[in-house]
Amino acid sequence: MSFLESPVTALHGVGAVRAAAYERLGIRKTEDLLWHFPRSYENRGDIRTLAEATVGEKQAFLLTVATKPTLAKIKRGMSLVKFRAFDATGTCEITYFNQDFLKNSFEVGREYRFYGKLEQKAKRYAMSSPAHEEWSEEKPLASLFPIYPSAEGLTQKQIKAGVHEVLSAAARELTDHLPDGIRLKNRLPALMTALRGIHTPETYEDLIAAKRRLVYDELFLFALSLRLSAKRERQTGAPIFSDGDLSPFLALLPYRLTGAQTRAIGDILADVAKETPMNRILVGDVGCGKTVCAAAALYTAVKNGHQGALMVPTEILARQHAADLAPLFEKLGIRVTLLLGALTEKQKREARAAIAAHETDVVIGTQALIGEGVEFATLGLVVIDEQHRFGVNQRAWLTEKGRHVHTLVMSATPIPRTLALTVYGGLDISKIDEIPPGRQKVETFFVGESYRERLEAFVRKQVAEGGCVYIVCPAVEESDAEEGEILLSELGELYSPEKKTPLKSAVAYTKELSERHPDLRISFVHGKMKSADKDKVMRAFAGGEIDVLVSTTVIEVGVNVPNACLMIVENADRFGLSQLHQLRGRVGRGTRKSYCVLVSDTNGENAKKRLKTMCATNDGYEIAETDLKLRGPGDFLRANANMGIRQSGGTEFRIADLCDDGDVLLRAFTDAEEFLAARALAEYPTLLEKVQGMLAENETRIN
């Protein structure tokens, strides 16, 4: 067994206790440490003098120790080590609390690099417990200091020591899995160069080049694994739904289907008549009529002797679907059961028994559908609504409730054609690009903060006339990133640290509005709340018990509120256009004249163009294409991460991000297609092993 394949206990100083700590980080073999990347880096190479420093910010200083450290015991068993150090511009008092061993760590006259937050008391500088390293001109210290994700029982020093030990072994044992032709075509460094660059970077350039190689690696392997996985899945036989006559179903509809709906249903019927499982996504704007297409698919499954399941992300949405579909299905002799976590134990037992005995035909529910004890008699079709709210694993668990189950997923995310095949992996795509007659246009306006007083008066007017209002904020609460750290996720070719404009938060803004308008019923909802609490607030809003709902983008998916007639989006420039378009789709669902107001004081020309596009058109696909053109694939995907575009096929990436790395994603998929078309993967055993490893990890997560 090679060192890289050995258990983590092969590392120096790692016994059972530390191995258990590593286990909590998912590190079992020594090689796993190679792929345990830093979460951020401290920039300790930007040395300041004391006089140049910004008080209150973390910075690095080269200081000479002036006095011998003293150890003093203070109240409640605490202690402190204290000494003075200086540079050419001033003197600083340095204090360490409860670190007695540091008393003998500093030598008078020697120079050290201190990294921490500088304080100023009167005319004296002070630092409390700064990081420190001895400085030598002969052995300069690295500028970028990695900070690793950790676990209780592990220190940063221990993780770094382990990483260095494994890097030494990797130089002897590791083989680069990426074919030279692909690596050179994309101007990527060798694997060992990249691993050294990510763990022990000497410069920003080293770090960025390393990240570029490792991101490409993951996305190239992801592309290969998706293609192999899709090929393998398509080889499995599935039940044939031979009877596709929809005339009894269509006769009961109170409207005629649009041409796009008819085409989508045709795609579905063609799929379920084949001997391979359907794996189709139905995409279309909010309100375009996807649900009736899903109902037609469920009707077909039941008519052919199978059960159907419809899984949605929230209980309130499940109840809404049941209320809409059950009356229609009952006229066709189709039995519908609702399965939710909020049901009593008795109700759940009865529902599970009916499902197992095939005493019900269509089951509508939340994640309760994949819970223990839910066994279908003859599950033939699974429909996933608002598919981006579920992980791939959750979707897989539901399809495994039957044999060779057909799958239809639905998304209201309009996505440009150039990205669709990449983002949706191996799924076949049907697009509904027509809005049913009678759906009204939502008038959209782009305003700045100077309109705040008029805007709040407009809110009051809508409420006074019986309407209700959504206000969307980009943040839950005010929060800052780790001070002084450069996040690995933020690093790119054009990285430059910058101050971000403050975001309006749902919680704080609710309080602020409530104080200004005490007569209005104002509440908030956000993604960090428990599902039951979110559903309770949404039901109250839908029931007219709340006038103004301040929210994060959690309301992109939710209940139909016909009285909602005004959508206000704060910091609108922070959202992708597709995201704004879907938020806008939450209003205008009833008979009231409806409006969407985008609030932003942005000075960016592209941002202004994007927001003006929202005012000019209601076509989701035109909006998505404009967003892609103005922002590029990486920014488009990042801005719409909450809209279901962060699809990973089950893969949990260590460093790549489908949103931030959209341009690399497209390149990796193109390279993978060309590679598989030109040669057999078996000719590259190291690469094949990596791809099989990724597939195995995904299957382990699903099982």
Features:
703 residues; alpha/beta; 6-stranded parallel beta sheet; 24 strands; 37% helix
* Strand segment count: 24
Summed up, the helix count is 20
For the largest beta-sheet, the strand count, sense and barrel status come to: 7 strands, parallel
Low-confidence stretches: 494-500, 642-650
Note the beta-strand portion: 15-25%
Q: In which order are the strands of the major sheet placed?
A: 13-14-12-15-16-11-17
Q: Overall pLDDT, averaged?
A: 84
Cα Rg: 29 Å
SS-derived structural category: alpha/beta
Task: Give the helix proportion (percent range).
Answer: 25-40%
Distance between the termini: 28 Å
Overall geometry comes to globular
Topology:
Elements lengths: L15 H9 L15 E4 L3 E2 L9 E8 L4 E4 L5 E9 L2 E8 L13 E11 L2 E5 L2 E4 L9 E4 L8 H18 L6 H6 L5 H9 L4 H31 L12 H5 L7 H14 L6 E6 L5 H14 L3 E5 L3 H17 L4 E4 L5 H12 L5 E4 L13 E6 L7 H8 L6 E6 L5 H7 L4 E5 L10 E5 L4 H13 L3 E5 L12 E3 L18 H11 L5 E4 L5 H12 L5 E4 L12 E6 L7 H8 L10 E5 L5 H12 L3 H20 L22 H17 L6 H18 L1
Parallel strand pairs: 2-3, 6-8, 11-16, 11-17, 12-14, 12-15, 13-14, 15-16, 18-24, 19-22, 19-23, 21-22, 23-24
Antiparallel strand pairs: 1-10, 1-20, 3-5, 3-7, 4-5, 5-6, 7-8, 7-9
Helix pairs in contact: 2-4, 4-5, 5-19, 5-20, 7-8, 16-18, 17-18, 18-19
